[in-house]
Structure formats: C-alpha cells, structure tokens
Amino acid sequence: MRVLLIVHGFPPSASGGTELYADAHARELRRRGDDVLVVTREQDPGRDEYAVRRETRDGMRVIWINNTFRKARSFEETYRSDAIDAAAMRAIDEFRPDVAHVHHLTCLSTTMVARLRERSIPVVATLHDYWLMCHRGQLYDMDFHVCGGPDECHRCVGAAGGLGAAAHAGAGAVRALERRLPDAAAQGLRSAAERAAALMASSAGGDVEHRRRTAHMRAICGDVAEWIAPSRDIRDRFVQFGVQADRISLSSYGVDPSPFRRTARSASNLLRIGYLGSLMASKAPHVLLEAVRQLPAGTFSLDIFGGYAAYHGDDRYRAKVEPLLRQDGVTPHGPIPHARVPEALASIDVLVVPSVWPENSPFVIHEAFLAGVPVVASRIGGIPELVVDGKSGLLFEPGDTAGLVLALGRLSSEPRLLATLRAGIPAVRTLDDDVTAVRTLYQRVEPAQSTSKIAAVVLNYGTPDETYLAVRSLLASRYPLAEVIVVDNDEGPDDRLREALAPVWNRVTAIRNRRNLGFSGGMNVGIRDALARGADAVLLVNSDVIAPPDSVGLLERALSAASGSGIAGPVVLRRSEPDRVASLGMRYLASTGRMRHVGFGERLNGQTGRARQIDGVSGCFMLVRREVFEAIGLLDEDYFFSFEDLDFCLRARRAGFSTLLAGAAVVYHEGGRSMGATSPRRLYFAARNHLRLARRLKPETNAVAAAGRTASIVMLNVAHAIRAKGGSIGDRIGAVVRGTRDYLANRFGDDSDRGR
C-alpha cells in the first residue's frame, strides 16, 4: 500500500507529541512493507520560501517544504497557500498514494485535502488538537484563558485578521530582523511590533477573517473520509463543530513499549516529581512550580525536562516561570531528546501534567504509564479518560495550585498510595495494535475502482511517429482503457502507420479512412466504433499529445465526482516548453463571439488543482460520456478543422451537460504537427469556423448587430494573422479573407477544392 502522511513538523527538527507519533506510525508502516511518503514543513530562513527538499530516511521518503511565512500577505495565507499546495501536489502526484493520513496541516496548506479528494485519494485524519476550529490550536486565547470555541475566535484573530497586506509584509520584515538580533533585543522588537499591530488592526476585519476561516475549515472537514479521535472529548467537540459523528472513530494512541523495557528504577527517600514538556503558558508549569514551593523542604525533588516556548510568539509567560525554576529542590534539565524519555521517567515517582488547555490525549501520559509512573493531572479535556482519579493517578482542577498541593501532599503522607496507583495503571495500547487498526481503516476507505468502460480514439494524419508516441502513452495509463482505436486520415501509403505502430499493433484497433475527413469527421469514425463496442465514455486524442499515466483516471474521477457533468479535459501544456500553458480550457462570450484559451502562453505556476466548470476544453484530449453523444450527436463535420471542440461543449451545455477542466490532470501537446503550425491554412479555418460558431450559437435577428459581430470577429482574426508566423503577411491576411468569404457563401467542410 502507498501511504501518504501529512504533518506540520517531523523529527528531528520537531519533537512534539503529534510529530513523534506521526514518525512512529511512518516507521511502523514502512516496517510492514508499505511505501511511505511524508510531506512536512521546515522553517529555514536561509533557504528560498517554499523550496522543496527531499530526503530518504529508513526506507521512507520525506518531502520538506520551507515556509517561514515571510511571503504571507494576508491572514488567509497563513493557513492556505497556493504555492505550498502546488509544491506538495507535485510530489504527491509523482508518488500516487492509495490513501492519505493527515496528522496536522498548520504551516502547510489546508487545500491539499481538497486536491486529494479531487484525485479520488481517500483522506483519513487524526484529531490531535483543535487547530481546524481554533487558529491557535488549543482553545486557549491571547489572554491565557480557555475559550468556548469558534464563536469566540474573533478575539484572537482580530489583530492578525484585521491587518492588510502591507502589515503582513511588515511582519515578515520584523521576523527577518529578529533573527539577526540578540534574544533580548529581538523580544523587545517583537513586543513593539505586536503593540503596533493591535493598534492598526481592524476588529471588523478580524471578525470577517475568523468567519471566513471557520467556513473554510468546515468545508475542508467535509473532504475527509474518516476521522480518528484519540479521546471522546475531542470527538464530541468536533461533532459540535459539524463533523458527522459516524465518520469519527475513537482510537487511543499506540506507543512502542520496547524502549521502556530497558530502563531500571531505583528507590528514594524523596518524592521524586517530574514534568516533561514545553514550558508554555497553556501547559502551565508555573502551577506545579508554585505548588512545590508549598511542600515541606527536603521531602521532594522536582525535575523539569523541557525548554521554554513562547505561546504563539507571546513571551509574557517567561517572566512568570523563569524565577520559579530557581527555587530549591527544582532541577531544570532543559529539552531532552525523545530517546531519553524512558530514562527520565524511570528517574521519577510521579509525573505531573498541569495543563490548563483542554488537552486531547497527552502522549506523555501514555509513556508515563508504560514506564510504570502514576500521573497527577488537571481535570480537563481528554485527560480524565486516561487518568482515573484514585486508581492510576490523581486529578485536580486546572490552574488550582492548592488542589495540586493537596494531591502531592497525599503522595508524601500516604506511604501506600504510590504503590496503589502504580498497580492501577492500565495497559497501554501498543503501536503494533494501533497501526494494524489504522491499516484496516485505510483499506476500508480506499475508493472502489470505477467500472466505466473508456475507449480512446487517436486520430492520425501524416504523423505516424507522433501517433505511436500518443498511443504508447495511452497504453501506459493507470486507468485501464477498454480500447485504443487509431483512425487513419492519411492519404499516403497504407504501411506507414502500421510500421510506426508495429511494437503495439496487436494492442490497438486501426481504422483506415483512405482520405482526410478532417478532425471532426475522422474522430466521428472512431466515436461510432467505440460506442458500437459498448464504451461508457470516449476519449478523443490528437496524435501530437503525450498523456502521463494518471491523466485518464483523473478525468474519469472528475466526471464521476461532479453531478451533471458530461465532458472533461485536462490542463494542456506545451511539449516543447513543459512549463508553459497551452490551455486551461476555453472561455467564450456569445455577445461578441470572442473566444480565448485561458492561460495561453503563461508559465505554469499553481494553476492546476480543483476541477471547475469551463465553457469548453481542447479537443486534443477530451473525455466525453456516452450520454452526451446520445443527447446531441457527434462532432459537427462542417467545421472540418478547429472550433468543433468548443461547439460540441457549448451544445452539450444547452442539453444540460457541464464541461469540466480537471485541474489535477495534465497532458503535453504540440499543435500544428499535421497541418503545420505556421500554415496560413490554419488562419482560413479559424476565421471561417469562428464566424460559423458565433452565428450558430446566437443567431442575430438584427442585421446591424449581426454585421457588427461579424466585423468584430473578422478584425480579431486579422489581428491574429498580423501577429502570426509563417508565409507572407499577404498570405496570412488572404487566408482570413478566404475564410470570411466562404463563411458568407455557406461553404464549409474541407477546403481542398478551393483556392488556398
């Protein structure tokens, strides 16, 4: 199984509970033989923003995307980023996962979830905290109080959300300067900047941004197939947020027990108290430090394993906690590697978890239980689901220093209590059991393979070698094609195409027309054959197209996911310049007759992604449902060459079928191989057929209006002829004149019997 894991940080650069758990999961999946890709974030000011770094570690691949927020210009860009999305999806498309497991999206881009769904890659997500409903992640506000949830977000979002692009740019400059200053000076600069931001911010803007974020996150939640909640408390909060209860499975964290079996415990006359974690306001180590100050001297020791961390850049808490670390009986050890956690737990008698935010299912409690250490903890969030008061530990009210003093006093004064609590420690779920259950969930949510029978029709005219490349790319499709039908419009010798297709001849159906029927006529021959063979959908393919292996499947998925859709096309890139767009679909304005290929000539820069409705897609690679042909017929052969694809899409829309640009799908096309990219003949067909399309789709009853539209289209084509290459300017403008003349004379189809 190919498993994609997405997490906001990854060891060794990040070592919080979520990151460590994701790392353990990834390693266990790899040990079982699964192919694993981890997409994560790093923050390296020395590297380009959004730069991608690849690493292979213990058999699994890790993609690091650099994000320091120095290019963020709005609050929205702090949680969704087209640049991060594009960088991640390039790696993900290359990996082709069967399932994605999202552990955390902060500092990445939420829209990756939507992109995965568009690709029919099922998404499983574990709820580690509240970031999807709270931009600080802990339901703990800027005043260091627990909040009531999304309805109160405007209080925290205010400063960030109410700032404009200039202020966000200024924040990036402040961050850059901070990195060059000593700690004290950097903190002073940050505090001044925060005060200025608060004065500049618009509370109304913050309210709008919080509502926009909340609506966006609810939409993202809808794209997740299955949720995993390590505690009932977090499950219930997300059900209240709008996630369907039947899509959330309760599943406790699993931990590898082997490191804890190699540690030995020793006896002590003191009550050895321990704290493991960041010294952060929401984790409230000050409550513990103030409590031990009230214990009798010489009866306890307190070991603090962890370093100070500001709460979302707010450094006020440092002044409160640092003096308390200097009291007698307290030993600060600073941050320790995760590999030393079993050793640290073996050196204490009790772990204290004094958090004042509604923790989900603290990883450190699971590890303490594995080490045989009872826990004294706040009665908040999911903690009471782990620590049973009086059985495996003791509970006190969050922030209640007196309650914690009472609990620790009991451990000192009741000699048998520690032993009783150790005996009551529950079994801890193993990582092996956890991953087994999650893999079962992965298999359950894998999308069923589509049963749509797709036949591809490839049209050849004078380009047998190109046709071979197109056919070979289709035969490599990961979506199995029922038929590959090659229609030969070539008027040359019969054996040219057969010789070119010799390596794949027995895998295709060849139809010889012996004359050039044009694009529409030749394709119709293949379409009729495909429908007669029972195709549910027909894929139209130019001979000068090369399709990556996932293109057909992505088009089929886009059609399957969109009710009422009948036609889908991909992003078309130039074969000669693969980073240049040939078409992001077509837009057509009936009132003026103006048509354009969206994005033509632009560099590819994140334009791929979500499927969206469009007026038309290029006929060079177009997937059409059978029902569309049955409703509107085949391509109009009077066009012969050009505009028949847009005509077909617009006729389909009139019949109730939408056309989609499947942004996740990409093909490479080099137009002009059969007729010649610079042939004036192309200008003839463009002018004639452009006029025909406009009249057909919107017949003008007013003669003046009709003449005006005709003149407008002719001038557009003349302007195009002037800019075009090939032949003399007289030949090019003459081609437009001939096309206009034949349109006015109602002469359509092939132009071979007319003056060129």
Q: How would you sum up the major sheet? A: 10 strands, mixed
Count of structural domains: 4
Determine the mean pLDDT. 87
> How much is the radius of gyration in Å?
33 Å
User: Which structural class matches the secondary elements?
Assistant: alpha/beta
Count of strand segments: 26
Termini separation comes to 58 Å
CATH class of the largest domain: Alpha Beta
Portion of residues in beta strands equals: 15-25%
What would the principal axes of the Cα set say about the shape?
A: elongated
Q: Count of helices? A: 25
Q: Quaternary status of these chains? A: single chain
In helices, the fraction of residues equals: 25-40%
Low-confidence stretches: 197-204
CATH topology of the largest domain: Spore Coat Polysaccharide Biosynthesis Protein SpsA, Chain A
Can you offer a commentary on this structure?
- The longest helix is centred in the last third of the chain and has 21 residues, at 703-723.
- The two termini are 58 Å apart.
- It is built from 25 helices and 26 strands.
- Mean pLDDT is 87; it is low at 197-204.
- Helix 1 packs across helix 16 (431-445), helix 23 (680-697) packs antiparallel against helix 24 and helix 23 runs parallel beside helix 25.
- The strands form 4 sheets. Strands 15, 16, 17, 18, 19, 20, 21, 24, 25 and 26 form a 10-stranded mixed sheet that branches. Strands 3-4-2-1-5-6-7-8 form an 8-stranded mixed sheet, sandwiched between helices. Strands 11-10-9-12-13-14 form a 6-stranded parallel sheet, sandwiched between helices.
- The chain folds into 4 domains: 2-146 and 220-250, 3-Layer(aba) Sandwich (Rossmann fold), CATH 3.40.50.2000; 258-428, Glycogen Phosphorylase B (Rossmann fold), CATH 3.40.50.2000; 454-669, Spore Coat Polysaccharide Biosynthesis Protein SpsA, Chain A (Alpha-Beta Complex), CATH 3.90.550.60; 680-744, no CATH class.
- The chain is α/β, with parallel strands linked by helices and 756 residues long.
